[in-house]
Design brief:
The chain has 448 residues and is of the alpha/beta class. It folds into three domains: 176 residues, CheA-289, Domain 4 (OB fold (Dihydrolipoamide Acetyltransferase, E2P), Beta Barrel), CATH 2.40.50; 62 residues; 175 residues, 3-Layer(aba) Sandwich (Rossmann fold), CATH 3.40.50.150. The chain is 27% helix and 28% strand. It is built from twelve helices and 19 strands. A five-stranded mixed β-sheet has the order 8-1-2-10-9. The protein has a five-stranded mixed β-sheet with strand order 3-6-7-5-4. The chain has a five-stranded parallel β-sheet with strand order 15-12-11-16-17. Strand 18 and strand 19 form a beta hairpin. The longest helix is centred in the first third of the chain and has 19 residues. It is elongated and about 85 Å long. About 9% of the residues have low confidence.
């Protein structure tokens, strides 16, 4: 083996090892205490909330703020700052506090912290052993430290913290039992159960952070209205069924996002939906309808769009550039087999029999060019009649969303049509106006 081959092999091995080391396999909820960043394993966090006006419990240590009523369940409220002898502001007793509801092995408690930040995904291999210099609390309560995006997080061992305090304050590890004759322990209505201004809804903020962590879904003005409406619906449903409001894993996040996706995702469209979209495309004098289809997946959307446009523009050529950043999906698109249950009458003129089932004919395929492409990179298309990017932009970071929308505006011809996901809107970015046909909403550039 030559020296160059050896170096190349070593470089590949080093790259693979580095990738393996950096696999994100742990997530933590981050918060601050006395100006330092801390984290707790997300699996220990039941939910987060704003609360205050806790019911006082006599003869308990000073770090026990009292008890609170969590939807009928009485839980202890512990001030971590006082427990760890850290500075704690002297707030009005009725003022709302930032609370992490922790689910421990045998107990549920609430802990007061200075502020709650977000969910951070890390690789367990990057966690370093604890050291006294890393925090202002006893090292035995720290499971490790980790650096993420130039911030150093001290990871608390929740079980160790509260097991240690079991003998000191029984109220911490046992849920208080209320006696009808004991007026001291009768819970008063928590301020978190009152109507809190939207800007103070820490639960919504937490949901937004976890969506980006678990599903790479980024909440911006493009989709914020949908997320807020969905959160209200989600919260009511989860609380009614006795489930945690917050998202604990990727499955929770996917369940939250299920209503977000546009109709016929990964399926052939029905005739009505396709006709509504095609009717919004302006009939220009040119001989070709030029379309950029982003996030085409395995091809169902592109084939549906091609059929709908050919039915409307019988005297014009249709050319679709179909892109996706999923290499496996885009590779299989040209040979997509049509599911029998999706094969409705409007597709029959464009279908042929092949080994294993049915495919679209060469005539239809010739109007579509499938290519692997990341929309955040340089995009060569221009003078387009239509751009369709359903449910794509929400999975780009905020800066990328804005840049891609600017690119769309440059590449569409005057009167050109932009179709985003059914729960995405570019109107807050400016420069766009909406047009509707049935259940479909599209966007065009504002005229100068």
């Amino acid at each position: 083996m030559s020296n160059n081959q050896t170096k190349q092999k070593d470089a590949v091995n080093e790259s693979v090892e580095k990738e393996q080391i950096n696999v994100i396999d742990t997530k933590m909820v981050t918060f601050t205490l006395a100006g330092k960043d801390y984290g707790i394993d997300i699996m220990k966090v039941k939910e987060i909330r704003k609360a205050g006006n806790f019911t006082f419990v006599p003869n308990t240590p000073p770090f026990v703020r009292g008890v609170d009523n969590l939807r009928g369940e009485i839980i202890s409220i512990i001030d971590l700052r006082i427990m760890f002898n850290l500075p704690a502001p002297q707030n009005d007793p009725t003022e709302l506090e930032n609370i992490l509801i922790l689910r421990l092995e045998n107990n549920v408690i609430g802990v007061v912290v200075d502020s709650i930040d977000k969910v951070v995904g890390i690789a367990s291999t990057q966690i370093q052993p604890p050291h006294p210099l890393f925090g202002d609390i006893n090292i035995k309560y720290i499971s490790g430290v980790v650096e993420n995006e130039e911030r150093l997080y001290i990871i608390l061992d929740a079980e160790a913290v509260f097991d240690e305090k079991e003998e000191e304050a029984e109220v911490i590890v046992q849920r208080p039992t209320l006696d009808q004759n004991d007026e001291e322990l009768t819970p008063t209505k928590s301020l978190s159960e009152a109507i809190v201004p939207e800007k103070e809804d820490i639960g919504l903020k937490f949901i937004k952070e976890t969506l980006s962590t678990f599903k790479k879904y980024y909440v911006t003005s493009l989709n914020n209205n949908w997320v807020e409406n969905r959160y209200a619906e989600w919260k009511e449903h989860r609380e009614t069924n006795g489930k945690d409001v917050q998202l604990s894993d990727a499955m929770d996040a996917e369940e939250f996002l299920t209503p977000f996706y546009s109709p016929y995702t990964n399926k052939l469209w029905d005739a009505s939906y396709g006709e509504q979209i095609a009717s919004l495309v302006q009939d220009h004098s040119g001989k070709m309808i030029r379309v950029w289809n982003i996030g085409c997946g395995k091809g169902a959307e592109s084939y549906s769009l091609a059929v709908s446009l050919k039915k409307r523009f019988t005297d014009k050529q249709v050319k679709i550039w179909a892109n996706d950043s999923d290499l496996l999906s885009i590779s299989s698109a040209p040979t997509m087999l049509i599911p029998q249950e999706q094969l409705s009458d409007e597709y029959l003129p464009y279908v042929i029999d092949v080994k294993g089932g049915k495919q679209f004919s060469k005539n239809l395929k010739d109007s579509i060019t499938f290519e692997y492409h990341d929309v955040t990179n340089v995009n060569p298309f221009e003078d387009l009649d239509m751009i369709i990017a359903r449910d794509v932009l929400s999975f780009l970071k905020k800066g990328d969303q804005h840049r891609v929308l600017e690119s769309f505006m440059d590449k569409l011809k005057p009167g050109g049509l932009l179709i985003l996901g059914q729960n995405e809107s570019p109107l807050e970015y400016g420069g766009w106006i909406s047009i509707e046909k049935g259940t479909v909403v599209g966007f065009t550039k504002k005229s100068d």
